[in-house]
Every structure is written in C-alpha cells, then in structure tokens.
Amino acid sequence: MLNEIVTKKRREVAIQKRERPLSQFEKDIIRGDFRFRKGIKEKPWALIAECKLASPTKGELCTAYTECELAQIYTANGATALSVHTDKHFKGKLENIKMVKAVTPLPILRKDFIIDAYQIYESRWAGADAILLIAAVLSDEEMNEYLEVAAMLGLDCLVEVHTLEELLRVQKTSAVLVGINNRDLKTFTTDISNTFALMPYCSSKIVLISESGIKNQEDAKRLQEAGVKGILVGEGLVCAHDIGMMTQEMALCQGQRCS
C-alpha cells in the first residue's frame, strides 16, 4: 500500500510542478521560526493531535466534525501541536493548513508523503510549521537534502522511522525530532511495543515522539514513563465518544482542563 501511495504521489507532484512552478510562489514564502519544535520542547509532555477524517485502510473515521472543528476541540483541551493531512488518501488537501491556522494558534505539522523538495517549499508557503519525512520512502541523500531545505525555510521536520535500520540511518542526519511509528507498513497493524523496542537505540540528542496505535491515557502514561517526549494521535482521538475528554486524557491533563 505504501509503494502504491508513493507512486501516485510522484505523479501528483509532477503535475503540480507543471501547473504551479516554484517560481510562481517562492517569493511569497515567509521563513518560519521553528515554532513546532519549540512548542514541543518547552513542555514536559507533548500531544500532537491529528485533524484526521479518513484512513486508507479504514475509510471514514470522523463524520461529525470538520478539520477546523477538530482543531478547535484539540486546542481547547490541551494539545501541544496539530497534524493536518494534505494527502488525498486521508481526504486531505493543502488548503486545510490555512483553514486550520485561521482557528488555532497551535503550530501545524503537514502530514503527507514528501518525496520532492518542491513539497517542502509548498508546505511553508501554505503556512505549515513542520513537515513529516518518512525514512522508509527516502534515501539517505534525500533525507539530508530535505532536512537542509527545511532548515533554510525555518521549517521543522518530524522524521518517521519504523525499524531499527531506519532509526540508525536517521540518527546519522541532522534530524532533531524523530517519530517511531508503531504501524507495521506491511500489515498496517499497530503495536506500541515497537516504540519500547527501539528506545534503547535512540540517541539522547533527539526529541522522541511515538506515533500510531496509542488508544488511551494508559498508553500515553506508559510512553511518558518510558522517556518518550510526546505522542502523535489520530484515530484514538477522532473515534472517541468524547473527543475533548480524550484529548485531555492523552495530553495527561489528569482530569483538569489544559490550555
């Protein structure tokens, strides 16, 4: 499935580059100030909440709210940052970033399959504070190049790994934020034990985020106690009966309203 998505993404980006060349909007890009990593570092625990309406494997996840409404709920209940999907497989679009930024002061991660430097410029132009880089679909050369381009634009990168091999590759780069994805890319099942298995190999220099498969406050607490800096949660929030209360629980607000 991942290979299929990336193949389609390469075609999409090729069309975008022809229809809207970088030269048309590069002058309008305002350099960022790395506010995504700052927001995460300044708190003892970070919740990156996903404005996620659909999944490639499960289809519709949330029909009761829009991305903007989810963003407002997350912001009011203790989220540190937001993740906004811009890929069609998640019913996302680039315009969602500006729409969400209009209703929240929180920093925003663009969640997409970045396979071309063009998308990094596009992300900052759209207002993203950070982008996701997936080690499984990038070569070492591409990772280093994209980290460099992002740094030039004042844009943070959350570099995602799934295996020990990928983690060791990423730790040879300048990556500061590293996300351990608990989803098996072959079966698409999730298990947070993947984070615990890879943690002993993590450098103390990185800021570690656990992604996917985090279902409740108990999972969040286990990860925090193990030394993880924060979590990225989508399905566990949008499928909750009370999204606001679940946000508070994942943010470890301990029953009190977070701000």
TrEMBL record:
Task: Name the reaction it catalyses.
Answer: 1-(2-carboxyphenylamino)-1-deoxy-D-ribulose 5-phosphate + H(+) = (1S,2R)-1-C-(indol-3-yl)glycerol 3-phosphate + CO2 + H2O
Cross-referenced Gene3D superfamilies: Aldolase class I (3.20.20.70)
UniProt KW Amino-acid biosynthesis keyword: yes
EC number from the UniProt entry = 4.1.1.48
Q: Which residues form the Indole-3-glycerol phosphate synthase domain?
A: 2-249
* Pfam family name, one: IGPS
The main enzyme category here is lyase
UniProt GO MF annotations: indole-3-glycerol-phosphate synthase activity
CDD domains in UniProt: IGPS (cd00331)
Which pathway is it part of?
Answer: Amino-acid biosynthesis; L-tryptophan biosynthesis; L-tryptophan from chorismate: step 4/5
Cite the entry's keywords alphabetically: Amino-acid biosynthesis, Aromatic amino acid biosynthesis, Decarboxylase, Lyase, Tryptophan biosynthesis
Would the keyword Amino-acid biosynthesis turn up in this protein's UniProt record? yes
Q: Which PANTHER family match?
A: INDOLE-3-GLYCEROL-PHOSPHATE SYNTHASE, TRYPTOPHAN BIOSYNTHESIS PROTEIN
- Give the matching NCBIfam families: PRK00278.2-4
The name this protein carries in UniProt is indole-3-glycerol-phosphate synthase
What organism does this protein naturally occur in? Pelosinus baikalensis
Q: Which gene encodes it?
A: trpC
